[in-house]
UniProtKB/TrEMBL annotation:
Encoding gene per record: uppP
Other facts: Bacitracin is thought to be involved in the inhibition of peptidoglycan synthesis by sequestering undecaprenyl diphosphate, thereby reducing the pool of lipid carrier available.
Species annotation: Clostridium uliginosum
Protein name per Swiss-Prot or TrEMBL: Undecaprenyl-diphosphatase
PANTHER family per UniProt: UNDECAPRENYL-DIPHOSPHATASE
Role: Catalyzes the dephosphorylation of undecaprenyl diphosphate (UPP). Confers resistance to bacitracin.
Length: 283
């Protein structure tokens, strides 16, 4: 069987894009749609490929925050089995992740097929620009809150639910799940770095759930040696790049505002809008 190396190279490019953009507020889905369009990496397999490499990015969260996840899971069940005598902190954190995931779960299950119809270049451009404007406005209004929560274990149920509602904005491609949850964190009274970290944890159930629905509906008869290699390499590349980007992103947020990402989104939205108008990027 002949291996299509050009196809694999394109897969690596898209995986790098996923790793670079999944956890920063610029929309990984939007970038993958636009880049895939530009390099001619399209088709039914590509839809599944994008889902799988997003799971690679999620694995980076698990690895980077393994101790927090492990301790929280242990505390969660300790609290249940001891009837609240042990593990209160981990139980509360776990419940906050569950509460924050509920809005996206409800909307995602109810409108999954309709949401997928939005995945096109024109919708991404709109998401880039609208999301960029919202980032600037909400950051200016809430980022300098001196009473902001600076401990991820001090997040309340109401704050978790508010962030979960904002996460639903990410169902519009180009809006960015990271940007949506961080904006929700600001509005809810969280510091920027804590909002970003909480968005990492919310990504686990949100993306695993969404990916599961997509993988169940994929036609696996389309698989061949080239696509199998692409999946494996893409998963590993997305994981490694995400791991590096996440650590750098949190360090950046502790010192700098997110305005630079908003400006990037606006510029990218305008550029891609022009490319669509000129017919270079197909809607």
């Amino acid at each position: 069987m002949v291996i299509d190396f050009l196809f694999i190279i394109k897969a690596i490019v898209v995986a790098i894009v996923e790793g670079l953009t999944e956890f920063v507020p610029v929309s990984s889905t939007g970038h993958m749609i636009l880049v895939s369009n530009l390099i001619g990496f399209q088709g039914e397999f590509v839809k599944m490929f994008e889902v799988v490499i997003q799971l690679g990015a999620i694995l980076a969260v698990v690895v980077l925050y393994w101790q927090k996840i492990r301790d929280s899971v242990i505390d969660f069940f300790a609290y249940i089995f001891t009837k609240g005598k042990k593990g209160e902190v981990g139980f509360r954190f776990g419940m906050n992740v569950i509460y924050g995931s509920i809005p996206a779960l409800i909307i995602g299950l109810a409108f999954h097929k309709k949401i997928k119809t939005l995945f096109n270049a024109k919708a991404v451009v709109i998401g880039f620009i609208v999301g960029g404007i919202l980032l600037i406005v909400i950051e200016n209004m809430f980022r300098k809150n001196k009473r902001a929560v600076r401990d991820i274990d001090k997040i309340t149920v109401i704050q978790s639910l508010k962030i979960g509602v904002f996460q639903c904005l990410a169902m519009w491609p180009g809006m960015s799940r990271s940007a949506s949850t961080i904006m929700g964190g600001w509005v809810s009274g969280l510091s920027t770095s804590i909002a970003a970290e909480f968005s990492f944890f919310l990504a686990i159930p949100a993306m695993v759930g969404s990916s599961g629905l997509d993988l169940l509906s994929f036609d696996y008869s389309l698989m061949n040696l080239t696509t199998i290699i692409s999946l494996i390499v893409g998963f590993v590349v997305a994981f490694l790049v995400s791991l590096v980007v996440m650590e750098g992103f949190i360090s950046y947020l502790k010192k700098k505002p997110m305005r630079i990402f908003a400006i990037y989104r606006l510029i990218a939205g305008i550029i891609f809008g022009i490319l669509i108008f000129k017919g270079i990027v197909i809607v």
